[in-house]
């Protein structure tokens, strides 16, 4: 197999792309709430229009929390450990504790650990070289793409 298809690290997008994604997680729901309060959705009642504002703020807070703390943008293999990094949080686990990786069609990948924790990682389309590196470093890890997830032919062929 061509070793250019093997990687020991994966990073979702460039810094501007990641910054735009985090900003959009906060701003888009709040903008939706303000648009609803302005009556852009055809709501006549003042109370119904004002209800959009706290809804937008609440959804923005949840999405912002996920974008900052729960969705990793970087994975790295080193010293028999899997390291991950979110914007304001990081962690690692021994490769022996990594049980399964599921690339999803909805542009994220889930790493399942032996203790039940799940690490959600942004991106799926360019994660395949990293998954090949993971498959070589930890052959016990099950890599099961979700139905309808595009998988490169070289990866399906086992490397």
UniProtKB/TrEMBL annotation:
<feature type="transmembrane region" description="Helical">
    <location>
        <begin position="20"/>
        <end position="41"/>
    </location>
</feature>
<keyword id="KW-0812">Transmembrane</keyword>
<protein>
    <recommendedName>
        <fullName>PH domain-containing protein</fullName>
    </recommendedName>
</protein>
<keyword id="KW-0472">Membrane</keyword>
<feature type="transmembrane region" description="Helical">
    <location>
        <begin position="47"/>
        <end position="68"/>
    </location>
</feature>
<keyword id="KW-1133">Transmembrane helix</keyword>
